[in-house]
Amino acid sequence: MAELNTGDGGGGKGGKVRSKKQNSKVDLTAMVDLAFLLITFFMLTTSLSKPQSMDLSLPDKDPDPTAKPTKVDENRTMTVMLGADNKIVYYMGLLESPIAGPKDIAYGKDGIRRELLSRKKSVLAYSTALGKPKNGIIVIIKPTKKSNYRNLVDMLDEMAITGVETYAIVPEFTPEETKLVDKKEQ
Question: What is the assigned CATH class of domain 74-185?
Answer without folding.
Answer: alpha beta
